[in-house]
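Design job #97: recover the sequence.
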């Protein structure tokens, strides 16, 4: 990372990944600085940019430099369109937010897994609500040889129905077809993905696990859950984890192919509004094995 560090003001995190980047304005990057940022992103997987105060349009424009968007800046918030604060446990907005407290990769439950995401803070509560990140390349490296041999030949299905149901957070409101009118609850088959995936840009093997993964092919459900729970627990341990405590104006970008992430609890009677721009994965590397 020496050459990149000379071009950027990088402060590596006390973890196997990640860095804080100072001295850049994301809304006005020249090509050379962006090229250095992209290389730093592939090397460190998480880049944190304090005090950016991006508009939604500026956030989307920055994300677009990494690839096409799965969706443009969307609120991750307990503040409703009518400014009502959603805080009751049986509220579907609260259920969606609480579900995200489980470690996960984004969009593994969709036919094409996301490449990454830009996330920024507009309104933050007085305490709590950090976002955690976990390094699945370092987690693969930390596996003992028998476990590495075992998981390298396995694949699991991924489903938002499964993860929200297991956590007790399925929405209450159903549509006329008996499903849910919320992102990720599609009617297609649960995508099948390997437990170990080679990163298309770095060539490093990464664990591909998290709360959406279930029903490993060739195993019964109980055996599958036990193995996945064990690997998830092992993977998300220091020095492979970092939790970012947000300050208004912060922006981050992470590599969803390498990192898992999680929300953390906060007092939901206090308002919180984050903005999430999701970068689409390339079909060649991120399409599920059971989709064509």
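Job complete. Output follows.
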């Amino acid at each position: 990372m020496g050459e990149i560090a000379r071009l950027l003001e990088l402060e590596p995190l006390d973890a196997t990944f990640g860095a804080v980047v100072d001295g850049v304005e994301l809304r006005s990057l020249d090509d050379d600085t962006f090229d250095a940022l992209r290389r730093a992103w592939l090397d460190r997987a998480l880049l944190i940019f304090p005090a950016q105060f991006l508009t939604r349009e500026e956030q989307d424009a920055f994300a677009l430099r990494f690839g096409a968007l799965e969706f443009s800046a969307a609120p991750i918030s307990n503040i409703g369109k009518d400014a009502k604060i959603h805080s009751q446990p049986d509220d579907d907005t609260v259920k969606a937010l609480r579900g995200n407290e489980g470690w996960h990769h984004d969009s593994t439950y969709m036919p094409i897994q996301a490449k990454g995401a830009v996330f920024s803070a507009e309104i933050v509560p007085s305490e709590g609500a950090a976002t955690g990140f976990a390094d699945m390349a370092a987690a693969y490296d930390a596996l003992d040889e028998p476990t590495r041999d075992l998981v390298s030949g396995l694949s699991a299905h991924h489903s938002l129905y499964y993860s929200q149901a297991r956590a007790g957070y399925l929405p209450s409101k159903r549509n006329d077809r008996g499903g849910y009118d919320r992102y990720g609850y599609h009617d297609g088959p649960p995508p099948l993905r390997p437990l170990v995936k080679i990163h298309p840009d770095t060539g490093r093997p990464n664990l591909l696990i998290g709360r959406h993964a279930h029903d490993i092919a060739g195993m019964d459900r109980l055996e599958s859950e036990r193995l996945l729970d064990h690997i998830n627990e092992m993977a998300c341990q220091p020095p492979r984890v970092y939790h970012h405590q947000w300050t208004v104006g912060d922006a981050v970008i992470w590599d969803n192919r390498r990192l898992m992430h999680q929300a953390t609890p906060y007092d939901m009677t206090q308002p919180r509004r984050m903005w999430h721009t999701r970068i689409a994965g390339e079909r060649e590397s991120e399409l599920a094995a059971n989709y064509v």
